[in-house]
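#data-curation
PF: Archiving a pair of folding outputs for the training set. Convention for this channel: one message per protein, sequence first, structure tokens after, nothing in between. First:
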Amino acid sequence: MSAAFVQKSGQRARADEAYRLFALGQDVSAEREGQRAALMEWSHTVLFDILANGTGDNCKPLSQSPFGLWVRHRAGILFEGTGALETIRSAMRDIDDFILPGLNPEAAVGPEGASHFIGELRRRIDEIKFLLNDLFQTASAAENGHDPLTRTLNRRFLPSILGRELALAASNDVPFSVLMLDVDHFKSVNDRYGHSSGDAVLQQVADLLLGAVRPADFVFRFGGEEFLIALVETKLGRALEVAESIRRICEAHVFRLPGQEDIHVTVSAGAAQFEGHPDYTYLINAADEALYRAKNAGRNRVEAARG
């Protein structure tokens, strides 16, 4: 084993740990409550479907719900290797593979059979809620490595997070896409209104980006006025829709500057989908090339990477 490989592995391990510390240093209470709410929303949807239609066949499996996405991606980084996370995953498999199919009228043997599976569903959901609380309560919260201006992920976490997401996409045969976004004419904002106003614009853009993506996705400050968004389990077509939605949101937003006039700011974006290359920089470069074309075509637009 070469010294270079050992050094690279050590750097990756340190980046993984740094991200865990960073992410746990965010609003842990809000993240916990958000995931509890997502879990309960899925549970209520299933129970309502059973009451209305006599079956839960129309409901997505828990693993495909927003809560399932969070467990697979963010929780997989934050709490990997913990017994509670493995038990949550096991409970989710039981729900998807045994309990939901058991709620089908053809599978249930009389009303007692259906009642049994409904009771099992409630028991498993309660178990997951308890374990979720346990995960957050026992995790040590620490502020480390965030971008101090925008509160988005620091670029140094890119190798750790994108490397893991590419591996997940390849092993599970699911799509993965990234967006590269740039604030249009940002230098002009700095020159005309000053750097404090430029900072205010970046903070507001970051807030809009964070509000436009799912809890399982990742938003990075890539550098200067550039941001990168990692969209998990997302095809290129959907990534373009997300980028266009962000473009419209930013275009319509009134950016309030400290003590000065309000202004309008636009963004340009490039989108690319993972095509199997294990080096995450290939994916970033493809999205960056699409962003370059968007800016050259007049800005305030979205372009897709060329295959």
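PF: Second:
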Amino acid sequence: MELAAFDELKAKLWAFMHAHIYPNEREFAAQCREMARRSDEWTCPPLMLELQRKARQLGLWNLFLPVDSAAAAGVKGGGLTNRQYAEVCEILGTSSHAEFAAQATNCTSPDTGNMETLARYGSPEQRERWLLPLLEGRIRSCFAMTEPAVASSDATNIGISIERDSAAGEYVINGSKWWITGAGSLHCKIMILMGKTDAKAPLHRQQSQILVPMDTPGITLLRPLKAFGDDDAPKGHMEIQFDNVRVPFENVLLGEGRGFEISQGRLGPGRIHHCMRIIGQAERSLALMCKRISERRAFGKRLSEFDTILQDVANSRIELEACRLLIFRAAEMMDSHGNADARTRQYLAMVKAHVPRTCQTLVDRCIQAHGALGVSEDTPLFAAFAGARALRIADGPDEVHLLTTAKIELKIQKHSPLASLGYYQADRTQVFRRSTDPISEEAQQRLDAASKL
């Protein structure tokens, strides 16, 4: 999108946030809590439907879908690059819940990742059936990858059974998944499931991704899992059991054994989106801290006059700017080199390893500056802290991304022009001192004086 048009879009989005999102934050939270308390039939709160209608009318809809993915699917996206959408994500993330505004604009996870997956890898029939209603906001979706029995941060561990029934032309799925975000909503109509189709294939060709309609017999939602006490209704993070779940062969995405490949392409944009929304949360937290310390007094002066508090403010601003620039660089790499490029993958790993933990520390400072108020539900700080902490595990834990960063760095450094410079050769021709060298009279006097102490 051209710069002038992009600036106009951001101004329109900010106006939408101030007019419709910020004033409705507490009402939306109340509707979600009431829905969770009342029954197990979780649906979209009435307020969200109203906000979605307004967002569509204003043209603030599907901004996440980048130009290349939209073109591949033959649909209309936001017309933004990944770099531009990163800025949009930060604005959306300033709502009290990181995905409140994102959901209002049809830019929430896991739908964004699923829609981009369908746009990039889905067949024309799959896109017609599932992508179009998702883009229109008529249905929701979920992505089933994590399993309770294995360390799912290593995608090659994913082991839910997907067996072929050639006579029926169907896949038969058995096993369990958990932390399946979005599956709790009755609006969730389609699941992208990753499972093992061939245990004898090469390691990265054993898994496939299958489209599983949520009304398929054999799917049981066992329970909503709570993250720091929050069940995240009406989306939910569900534990799911699959008992002889059957779907036709044509529901496979891209082909058997391509699941790992799809995951690598899918998760890159999502990591950018999550981290920029967390930047938005951190910006709002810092704004609250600055307001608080400018108004409160202790020991005869304002909190903003204490050096330690000022250092916290300075460090927070420096860290935020560094995080933002790292994300922008990763987004630019995605735009120019694609998700599969090694350097792009390294930047994405650096973003995911660095930004959530940095923002968690930053929000913790903001909580500290608020005292007891900071740990209450009277500010959005507790939600920002919980969100940043949870994100250090979601989409892969810090340790995995640090490992990825280091492995790629070692490969890159093998070809670095600086590595060939080597080390300086020490000059060993000039001897410092030999054991048989005579000692000067002055040195002997100092030695004698020391021995008499």
